[in-house]
């Protein structure tokens, strides 16, 4: 999330929270695609991480990007922590360990998303190269310890850093050493939201396997293909996971509101100050009886900010966020929205995807999610491998994009962006499998070559 919400309108009832979600319903012709990706900055001279301060630090990088782009700076306590494009809607932000994130503008086609990505990477290189900085496209930092990883000066991250060890063993790794790519997609109605949420939750482990790209920690294989995904299994299970209740009768905006109300809060922001209320109930804030801030009333901004601190595999805001994929090379970043748009934005493909997953039980879905980080394409559900399911779902994505028929300047439709995923299926190997083979072969048991082979 590039910047906290600012709407000071008071809210006093559960019904208003439900209405907040309902505003997200859009006509199909207004559907857009918002792609976000993170990447690790590093110093090219010695492959070390990049601190915020210093003449060649993250602050200098952001200030250089502001001068180049003319975007509005996002400030906190006198420091620049991001940039916002007031015209197009895109933004640049910092994750806790300095991961540099582009939150893309809402666009109509995957081609536009790819053009936005390539323009962003060219702009970043223009500013970063004189600073001696590069960027790494993996799902987890492969070399640095947690102690070596820098800390970005954002108030919400300080609160999270203190709270995370109380609720799980891997929260700090999640914050400081992982990197993801996700896509945000629209829905036309509550019913459309529910069916897209169910299909994407069930298939999120399939995407995790296809995009697995985090097999190294602190210079060695970590035993997983997607360590990023494994880390989420013990980060904070009160706010993460597969949402099994989303498949129950009666699922809708109200049910998600009830879930979100029961997820412990992190903070309440007033002015520029983050009040640490970690573990408190939003229900108490809604009722005006939050112990840490007696008499303080909930606002629309409080609700939107609280929702941004909930981390299930698929997150509902006024759109749906697909959250299961490791970050990766440029082509993989374009492939993620292609995969989900092809499945979710075409009714025939969406219906066919539901036929694949509708009989899976909650236990089966959870076991699949638990197995995929280690086993990848070899994990199984109902006597089928993830590779087999992925092949079928990828065919649905292909069909859905073909029916969308959105050509680029060369007459090619959006299916061209699925090519990296077709290679995964054809080769029966994830990018993580290939990285491990390089590590045991030409890389001679060093992860350092990743900083050149997988640099942007």
UniProtKB/TrEMBL annotation:
SUPFAM superfamilies in the cross-refs: Glutamine synthetase/guanido kinase (SSF55931)
Bilayer-spanning residue ranges: none
EC class (word): ligase
Entry EC no(s): 6.3.2.2
Pfam families listed in its UniProt record: GCS2
Gene Ontology terms for molecular function: glutamate-cysteine ligase activity
Pathway: Sulfur metabolism; glutathione biosynthesis; glutathione from L-cysteine and L-glutamate: step 1/2
Keywords: ATP-binding, Disulfide bond, Glutathione biosynthesis, Ligase, Nucleotide-binding, Transit peptide
Catalytic activity: L-cysteine + L-glutamate + ATP = gamma-L-glutamyl-L-cysteine + ADP + phosphate + H(+)
Function: Catalyzes the synthesis of gamma-glutamylcysteine (gamma-GC).
Family assignment from sequence similarity: Belongs to the carboxylate-amine ligase family. Glutamate--cysteine ligase type 2 subfamily.
Complexes and interactors: Homodimer or monomer when oxidized or reduced, respectively.
Name the UniProt record assigns to this protein: Glutamate--cysteine ligase
């Amino acid at each position: 999330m590039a910047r906290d919400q600012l709407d000071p309108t008071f809210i006093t009832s559960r019904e208003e929270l439900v209405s907040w979600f309902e505003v997200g319903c859009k006509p199909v012709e207004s559907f857009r695609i918002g792609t976000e990706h993170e990447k690790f900055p590093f110093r090219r001279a010695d492959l070390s991480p990049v601190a915020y301060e210093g003449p060649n630090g993250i602050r200098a990088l952001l200030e250089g990007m502001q001068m180049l782009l003319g975007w509005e700076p996002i400030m906190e306590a006198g420091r620049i922590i991001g940039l916002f494009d007031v015209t197009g809607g895109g933004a640049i932000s910092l994750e806790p360990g300095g991961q540099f994130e582009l939150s893309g503008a809402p666009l109509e086609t995957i081609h536009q998303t790819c053009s936005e990505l390539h323009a962003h990477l060219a702009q970043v290189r223009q500013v970063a190269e004189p600073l001696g900085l590069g960027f790494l496209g993996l799902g987890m930092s492969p070399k640095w310890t947690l102690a070596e990883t820098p800390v970005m000066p954002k108030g919400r991250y300080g609160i999270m850093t203190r709270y995370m060890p109380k609720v799980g063993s891997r929260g700090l790794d999640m914050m400081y050493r992982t990197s993801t790519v996700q896509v945000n997609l629209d829905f036309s109605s509550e019913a459309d939201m529910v069916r897209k949420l169910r299909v994407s939750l069930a298939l999120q482990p399939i995407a995790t396997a296809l995009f697995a790209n985090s097999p190294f920690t602190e210079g060695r294989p970590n035993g997983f293909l997607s360590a990023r995904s494994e880390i989420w299994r013990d980060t904070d299970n009160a706010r993460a996971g597969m949402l099994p209740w989303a498949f129950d009768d009666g699922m809708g905006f109200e049910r998600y509101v009830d879930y979100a109300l029961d997820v412990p809060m992190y903070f309440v922001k007033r002015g520029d100050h983050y009040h640490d209320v970690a573990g408190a109930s939003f229900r108490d804030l809604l009722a005006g009886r939050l112990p840490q801030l007696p008499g303080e009333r909930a606002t629309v901004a409080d609700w939107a900010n609280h929702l941004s601190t909930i981390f299930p595999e698929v997150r509902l805001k006024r759109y749906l966020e697909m959250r299961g994929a490791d970050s990766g090379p440029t082509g993989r970043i374009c492939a993620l929205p292609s995969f989900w748009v092809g499945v979710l934005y075409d009714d025939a493909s969406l219906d066919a995807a539901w036929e694949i997953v509708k009989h899976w039980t909650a236990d089966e879905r959870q076991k699949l999610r638990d197995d995929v980080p280690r086993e990848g394409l070899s994990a199984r559900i109902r006597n089928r491998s993830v590779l087999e399911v992925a092949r079928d779902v990828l065919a649905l994505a292909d069909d859905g994009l073909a029916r969308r028929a959105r050509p680029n300047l060369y007459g090619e439709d959006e299916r061209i962006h699925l090519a990296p995923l077709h290679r995964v299926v054809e080769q029966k190997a994830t990018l993580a499998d290939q990285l491990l083979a390089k590590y045991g072969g030409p890389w001679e048991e060093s992860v350092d070559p990743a900083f050149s082979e997988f640099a942007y």
